[in-house]
Every structure is written in C-alpha cells, then in structure tokens.
Amino acid sequence: MPPPKVSIIIPTLNEAENLPRLVPRIAAAISPVTSFEILILDDSSRDQTSQVCATLARRYPLRLITRQPANGLAGAVLDGLYQAVGDYLVVMNADLQHPPESSPDL
Predict the structure, then answer these.
(1) With pLDDT > 70 as the criterion, what percentage of the chain qualifies?
(2) What number of CA atoms fall less than 13 Å from residue 8's CA on the CB side?
(3) How far from 92 is each of 1, 8, 23, 80, CA to CA, in Å?
(4) What is the rounded CA–CA span in Å between residue 49 and residue 103?
(5) Contact 78, 31 (CB under 8 A)
(6) Residues with Cβ < 8 Å from 97, sequence gap 6 or more?
(7) Confidence (pTM)
C-alpha cells in the first residue's frame, strides 16, 4: 500500500473531548481529495486521549504517538514532522481553532 499523500500532525495534551469531533471532520474534508494519515502526538495526557484514539483508529487512518513531555508544543510538532510519511504535512491544533475543512486548500 502506498504511503499517504498528506500527514496531519496534531499535538495534544488532554484533548480527549475534542478528538471525536475533529477527526471525522478531517476525514470528511480530505478523503474525497487524497489519501491521508492523522498523527496524534500526545504529551502523556491524563484524560482518555489514548482510549479515544484507539477507538478512532478503528475507523480512520490514525496513529497515536505518546511522548514524554519535552520541549512543549514545538517539540511535539517536530516529533510529528519526523514521524510523518506523507508528501505534504499539515499541523493542526486539536481544539478546533483551525477548521479542518480548510486543509484541502493548503
């Protein structure tokens, strides 16, 4: 199977509540256009982030990468850039401040 064209990197810390809203919106926006992967770079959240990601990964191309917090948000983004396999890389916040529907325009 060829690698995805787009890797969407999402740094998280205690974002279990937002991910079930965010991930389907990403998939709806990008899947008609190209192949994609979603990388969740989680800084050892204390909420249900890992369980939510496991559930979402059954339906969406999602990889959870749990990190020991180091270098804050920038460290998570850099780790995501390193782990991504897509030709195009998108960094998006988990709190829905970046509308997933704008991803194809990027």
Answers:
(1) 100
(2) 29
(3) 25, 7, 11, 11
(4) 23
(5) no
(6) none
(7) 0.94
> By the 8 A CB rule, do 83 and 40 touch?
no
> Nearest Cα to 69, choosing from 8, 1, 14?
14
The b-or-e profile of 51-85 (16+ CB within 10 A means b, else e) is ebbeebeeebbbbbbebeeeeeeebbbebbeeebe
How many residues in the chain?
Answer: 106
**45-74 per-position pLDDT tens digit:** 999 999 999 999 999 999 999 988 778 888
Q: Which residues contact 55 (CB under 8 A, 6 or more apart)?
A: none
